[in-house]
Amino acid sequence: MVAKDGTVIETLLEMIARYPDKEFDITAEGEIIEVSPKFIHSQIQALLAFILITHLRTEKINQYTVLTECAHDLNGWACRPDVSIDAKGEEEIPTRAPLLAVEIKSDSNSLKDLRAKASHYLAAGTAVVWLVLPDKRLLDTYQRDADDGILTVNDVLTGGAVLPGFSLQVAEIFN
Question: Is the Cβ–Cβ distance between 99 and 162 less than 8 Å?
Fold first, then answer.
């Protein structure tokens, strides 16, 4: 289902209200799709949210908060990152790009769609995007004005200038 009149967020919220026992996501092109999150997707999402919350609290980075599955409207582009770090005080549906957006590949999305989402996030002002690929045990990183990266389970994910002091062995994401 594609909402062509700029009401993707409203349509998504209506579908969530109408079908509370189902899960929905938004593709890079604004199509609302039904998803069936699997155990590994949920596990990775919860783990990354926990690790990011812990990091923000440990480093006393109080101007940001960690969100999961929160719909955003970024200059007319509707998205729903699996995990994001957003400025505190945003409205119910944030209109500012998250500092960090994380998308976890599931059976319902293609790598092409996830890469398109990463491009949209960066164009909207997101500083860093992580694409987690559970089936390949890889993590793709995207940053504005920097080279893209592919991290394996042998690598360490760092936060760079965006998340000072953050580091995580990629293997921990998949264990």
Answer: yes
Tell whether the torsion through CA atoms of 152, 119, 9 and 110 is positive or negative: negative
Chain centre distance of CA 60: 22
- In the numeric block, which tokens belong to residue 56? 């923000």
The maximal CA–CA distance of the chain, rounded, in angstroms, is: 45
Alpha helices in 8-136 (DSSP H): 8-18, 39-58, 111-124
In whole angstroms, give the CA distance from residue 38 to residue 124: 29
Least confident of 18-22, 84-88, 120-124: 18-22
Contacts of 112 (CB under 8 A, 6+ apart): none
Average pLDDT over residues 96-120: 94
Q: Model-level pTM?
A: 0.90
Within the chain, residue ranges assigned H as helices are 8-18, 39-58, 111-124, 170-173
Q: State pLDDT tens for residues 36-61.
A: 778 999 999 999 999 999 999 999 99
